[in-house]
Specification:
The protein is 71% helix and 0% strand. The chain is an all-alpha fold.
């Protein structure tokens, strides 16, 4: 089991150089604040949409939202930034994050969670604007704002984690979990049709042609894999550029101990 945890990125001691709770440019406390602001914005958006639907006598849209990959991913973004804020804030205050104190299986879960956060929002944005958007701008300001928040700003939030933190490229084994999650969503989509009578996305309707359906499914799967590879490369370049070339090894808490400093020096040498 220990080898599996190592393969998934949770080697021990876990996150000894605090990559999940620090930035190469932002102080830890400021990074925590930005993560909290993003989380608050996401949850405010979700509950404002729920309130809007209720006020306009369409609460069924709120219930149906839990069948859409976009909405599920947006909930995931909100919770990721909330927990990342808690981990980063605890690190800024004490020099050791809550994440480092968690059981190893939860550490693995957080790392995989991070991988989904830097991959799926980009996939959602690409699929929406390339396949689902009809080219006509939304008829109301509310629809425009809600769609921009969920289908554009989601990628901005993912970019924040990609470009401004000190994370390392996600382990290649995480790609398997992305495929599993996409497969589970596909099962949920067809379960929705059975239980609620509609397909969350029209291209999932097999009555429009099984060949076309298979093409969409395989195409989205391939896009997810390509996005994972591109994001992996961007993170690697960011880490190499900021640390090996620019010498910006990170902004750390004043509570660093001698062991932390030694680990940082060893890591910096490996990257160079």
């Amino acid at each position: 089991m220990a080898r599996i945890f190592d393969m998934l990125g949770a080697s021990q001691p876990f996150d000894s150089t605090h990559r999940y709770t620090t930035s190469w440019i932002l102080p830890p406390l400021l990074l925590a604040i930005f993560r909290l602001i993003i989380s608050i914005y996401i949850f405010t958006t979700i509950f404002f949409i729920f309130g809007w639907n209720g006020a306009h006598r369409s609460p069924e849209q709120s219930r149906a939202s839990f069948s859409f990959f976009t909405n599920l991913g947006y909930w995931g973004l909100g919770f990721y930034f909330l927990f990342s804020f808690l981990h980063t804030f605890s690190y800024a205050r004490t020099g050791k994050s809550w994440l480092q104190r968690w059981p190893r299986v939860l550490q693995v879960a957080h790392i995989i969670f991070y991988t989904t956060v830097v991959t799926f929002p980009i996939l959602v944005t690409a699929v929406f604007w390339a396949l689902l958007y009809n080219g006509t701008w939304f008829p109301t300001e509310f629809q425009g704002w809600s769609n921009i928040s969920q289908h554009a700003l989601n990628t901005v939030f993912a970019a924040f984690e990609i470009f401004l933190t000190r994370t390392s490229p996600p382990p290649p084994a995480h790609l398997l979990f992305l495929v599993i999650l996409l497969a589970l969503y596909l099962a949920l989509a067809y379960l929705t049709h059975v239980t609620a009578g509609f397909y969350p996305y029209s291209f999932l309707d097999p009555n429009k042609g099984s060949g076309k359906l298979a093409g969409y499914i395989l195409g989205i799967l391939a896009a997810a894999c390509v996005i994972f590879g591109i994001v992996w490369g961007i993170i690697w370049i960011r880490r190499w550029l900021t640390e090996a070339k620019m010498g910006m090894n990170g902004q750390f808490t004043k509570h660093m101990n001698v062991r932390d400093e030694e680990m940082m020096e060893m890591t910096s040498e490996r990257i160079k």
